[in-house]
Amino acid sequence: MFDEMDELVPDFDQRIRSAREAADMSQEDLADQLNEKASLIRKLEHGDHLPSDDVQTKLERALDITLTESSGADEDADWEGGSAVGEYTLGDVVERKDS
């Protein structure tokens, strides 16, 4: 369930500010467009506040940006190790405590 959730990117605050400035909008202009308070935009751009899912969606649409990165299955693809024949067993990844 949680493996396929998207995570907020670490630089979400910079992405929001850069996209807003590139669109030549003030924080107040963006807040008006999103029907949110300018103080929320300030807090987001300073990294003091995480956007709710609703606000995140509005920001992504209004500024044409992505604030999430996919997690889960992609991370598993980078894992290498284990069996020489390309198949893994439980013994390849588990270490027994009684040994």
From TrEMBL:
It comes from the Archaea. It holds the Pfam family HTH_3. GO terms for molecular function: DNA binding. Keywords: DNA-binding. Residues 16-70 form the HTH cro/C1-type domain. The keyword DNA-binding applies. This is Uncharacterized HTH-type transcriptional regulator MJ0586. PROSITE patterns: HTH_CROC1. SMART domains: HTH_XRE (SM00530). It comes from Halorhabdus tiamatea SARL4B. CDD domains: HTH_XRE (cd00093). The keyword DNA-binding applies.
